[in-house]
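Form P-L/3: holo structure prediction, ligand BV8.
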Amino acid sequence: MITEVSEWLRGASQIAVLTGAGISAESGVPVFRGHSGLWRQFRAEDLATPDAFARQPALVWEWYLWRRALIARATPNEGHRVLARLQQHKGATVTLLSQNVDGLHRRAGSPSVIELHGNLWRVRCADDCGLVVHDVESDPPRTNLRCRCGAWLRPDVVWFGEPLDAGTLQRATTAVEQADVVLVVGTSAVVYPVAALPEIARRRRARIVEVNIDETPLTPRVDAHLRGPAASILPQLEEQL
Ligand code: BV8
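OUTPUT (holo model):
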């Protein structure tokens, strides 16, 4: 199947890649769902919500600062690096869409990433006074959690129940509508509206390829399911490009 998929990729002029937490798993960044869970007894859906932040901002920040410390120590893996090289592949336009907020695609050298759910290294005023700050992984951990206007600062990510940025979602939708091949890597395909993107591509007769260590609700609807860790499957694909 790897050979067939490599042929599809070689023949494609537009490629869209959609990644989820699974592509960062081999960098030591825990995924959201599945056995390991994420943090203490909480699920992402418990903490990544405006209500949780309104009720317990300090707890939600504790979770994000714990994730930041872990991600700052993590390094991009071969899966991230293959995608960064694919984006520089002259033969095709490659659009990288990621649900991840860890920033590892950029650190792997990806020239551009559409960060569908934001980035936890960016903070903004929770009262939308306009302040946005870009923290750096190598800087000491953030201690100031208050905006100059007195409100809380919050991670600049999309929480459950919050809409995605309309322009971002439109760019992502256009990318999958125009794609000849959509590569879906390391996502459980259960969070909407992003989980609907491969379906949009399928209706436009794009080839859908899934790279995952497990089955997902998308698996029955893809043209190829490459079972295995992204950091070993993607290099195998790259070898044949
Ligand atoms: C919206 C950012 C509407 C924060 C995230 C009830 C109330 C409100 C909304 C809803 C509701 N019911 C449904 C919804 C919609 C909801 C939703 O889809 N919920 C799901 C749970 C059913 N969606 C939303 O709320 C979205 N907004 O609908 O707004 C609206 C419109 C107008 C006005 C107001 C509102 C917002 C969704 C975004 C939520 N934010 N994250 C943060 O990260 O801190 S979501 C979170 O899950 C992550 O960001 C990630 O993006 C997302 C998906 O997870 P995955 O990346 O797929 O990770 P997961 O752990 O699930 O899976 C890992 C996969 O990798 C597995 O398949 C595993 O097998 C595989 N894997 C593991 N290791 C490897 C591997 N694969 C390859 N190699 C490996 N080594």
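COMMENT: The chain has two domains: 2-29+76-117+164-240, 35-73+124-157.
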